[in-house]
Amino acid sequence: MGPIKKKVTVREQAILAKQAAKHVAVLSTEEKNEALYRLASTLETHAEMLLEENEKDLKNGRKQELNNAFLDRLALSKERIAQFTDGLRQVAELEDPVGKVMMDSRLDNGLKITKISVPLGVIGMIYEARPNVTVDAAGLALKAGNAIVLKGGSSAIHTNKAIVSVMHKALMETNIPKEAVQLIESTNREASQQLFTMKEHIDVLIPRGGAGLINTVASNATVPVLETGIGNCHLYIDAEADLEKTLSILVNGKTSRPAVCNAIETVLVHEKWLAEHHEALARTFSVHSITVHADEAALEVVPNAVAAVEEDWANEYLNLHIAIKVVKDVDEAIAHIEQYGTKHSEAILTENEYTAQHFMKFVDASAIYHNASTRFTDGGALGLGAEIGISTQKLHARGPMGLPALTTYKYIMTGDGQIRS
Amino acid sequence: MGPIKKKVTVREQAILAKQAAKHVAVLSTEEKNEALYRLASTLETHAEMLLEENEKDLKNGRKQELNNAFLDRLALSKERIAQFTDGLRQVAELEDPVGKVMMDSRLDNGLKITKISVPLGVIGMIYEARPNVTVDAAGLALKAGNAIVLKGGSSAIHTNKAIVSVMHKALMETNIPKEAVQLIESTNREASQQLFTMKEHIDVLIPRGGAGLINTVASNATVPVLETGIGNCHLYIDAEADLEKTLSILVNGKTSRPAVCNAIETVLVHEKWLAEHHEALARTFSVHSITVHADEAALEVVPNAVAAVEEDWANEYLNLHIAIKVVKDVDEAIAHIEQYGTKHSEAILTENEYTAQHFMKFVDASAIYHNASTRFTDGGALGLGAEIGISTQKLHARGPMGLPALTTYKYIMTGDGQIRS
């Protein structure tokens, strides 16, 4: 574990990252890609060590009686290591987002104006148990010419230390200074809170994890924040929704991976559709072991449903529970989504093109679906490349945030003495 | 002053704006442009009334012994009214930033993906004395499909109430609901502070004014902020800078409009250049009545200079004072800019292309100039169209913020039953 320096303060780490960022910013695409390949191969040759260190975290987790879902997110395996090393190679294959000429013009007085994409600088990544975020985030940050300060969950600290020590070892054989990847080793809360206000050294904070983590960062940070991934996603089943598509998309949206942010949490169903199809709907819930929290109208036709309370409409269950509310038209659905949605992914199922257009026009969210599953909101699934998170805010980047979200731009003006009259 | 509702709380105003924003968001370009022309002509026909109300503010200002520069910013005139009504018509002529297809693709499974620009929603504008901001900001916000909540300085309250009452009168004859333009009439600080945390109703806050105002908003708001306009701009005079260009750009940058954010505040001069040209430089300072705050080395060769103290390096003078520091090379200049700059506009004067490239690569700012005046950092001057401010931050928008900065985007996915495998 040699290369990680001990007893460095969080502020010192941020300063080291800022200095390293200047070097990463001006590297060529080839230099960055070479480093990503080197990271991948070095992580692979150290797989055994990573698994051993991960086992320490798992043992501690079991001792603390963390639940199985949590331990599953924490666990590494040969396959999971291969996933993130393949991910690094895929990022190497992506187009370099830095140095793109976004505008190029010349004023009448001869002043040349070029708008060019540049790295953000230092990215502060605050996340929870998943060790793959350590690798994925570092890879994306470096490819976009940035340095990164990582603050993972304390339960994954042995794994993260091991991963970062291997990454440092790999970077020492590349043109990226190893200081460009900083891991905050302290497991106390103050360590991440120090990052919240380091505006001089950190250019953006990206919190990734549960609503608690994200809201804590968003309400306390003075460093700009890219909020990610709280998804209270709705499926609106219109009066004119096709039965077969509806059941298939509902099952896919709720059950294919219930713990992710693009899973369906609430069904808004048109009263006419429900009157006609409630038996098929109820059967689907039952076959897939979905626990239904129903409003008064739905309670009457969905057997075994429990009565929904106010909190259900805002709840991101992340499991096989679902809320259902009966609405009289698309506008009631839109109003409900406006009140309770998190601007992540919202879907309408209807064969009526006009109703679909109306929904897509008036719903305010990063991703809106007509007759398709919300589960597609993902950089990879949408063909947008690897992502560092899914933004639920409106500024800078919305939806899946790939490499361009990790850049900004500057205007370069070249003249021969021009002054403004 | 009929149309302005009395006794409405700030929160109620924000809610009204949010509701109105939904209507503005879906208007056609023609409807929005028609409204802008109507605003311009109605403001013109009410010019006398605007001047009368402005006189009340000026009278109060004189009574409170506000300084002349402040009173000048506050004052309306026929010409200034014509400037902002012309501005509205120019905004009408600009391309509509809403509804632009930014990406259009189809997955192998047939799912169609469209990325389309949409309005931000409600913009909160917090500013100081200049009444033209009331008109300029409203025009830009509406053209980009947004509603706006305006909080101007208390010293301009009569003028702003008059302008907004005329704008409401005009909007009543258009398809834009008048609630899309809200003026907060309360002149106490809590009124604007309420806007800081209204995340459900306000999508972005844009503070425009002095450093005090901008820093207050940036450090207290939980609503996302677009920081604007603090400009501690540097002019680096390299060893190989041309004398004539240097003096002309220095004079233009410092004296053509000292109170604006793109004016030069600090000169960093290479020791070799200074040794050769200090007499010409000192003469220029003297001829243009520029007060020089010099470091030790410059003090020796600039007559009548005062000794610079630490605060001078960070000071945005906004008047005919300037700081000067002697450096031994371009890297010392870059390091100084990194320490004291505000990431607004930075210039290098040199005939050495390599040195210029080095400066432009390593200086982190929204606008970087080689052999040209920093005074060009302005949406109009750079041919980027009217601007709502100059962003000094890295996320979302950097440099002059025109109409596109007032939009975000959403992904629209259209399918026929696609689910994710």
TrEMBL record, chains A, B:
Q: Which InterPro entries match?
A: Ald_DH/histidinol_DH, Ald_DH_C, Ald_DH_N, Aldehyde_DH_dom, G-glutamylP_reductase_CS, Glu-5-SA_DH, GPR_dom
Query: One GO molecular function term?
Result: NADP binding
Give start and end of each Aldehyde dehydrogenase domain.
Answer: 10-288
Q: Among its keywords, does the record have Mitochondrion? A: no
Q: Please give the pathway this protein is involved in.
A: Amino-acid biosynthesis; L-proline biosynthesis; L-glutamate 5-semialdehyde from L-glutamate: step 2/2
**Pfam families the record matches:** Aldedh
Q: Which HAMAP family match?
A: ProA (MF_00412)
Say what the protein does. Catalyzes the NADPH-dependent reduction of L-glutamate 5-phosphate into L-glutamate 5-semialdehyde and phosphate. The product spontaneously undergoes cyclization to form 1-pyrroline-5-carboxylate.
Q: Which family is this protein grouped under?
A: Belongs to the gamma-glutamyl phosphate reductase family.
The name under which this protein is listed is: Gamma-glutamyl phosphate reductase
Q: Gene encoding this polypeptide?
A: proA
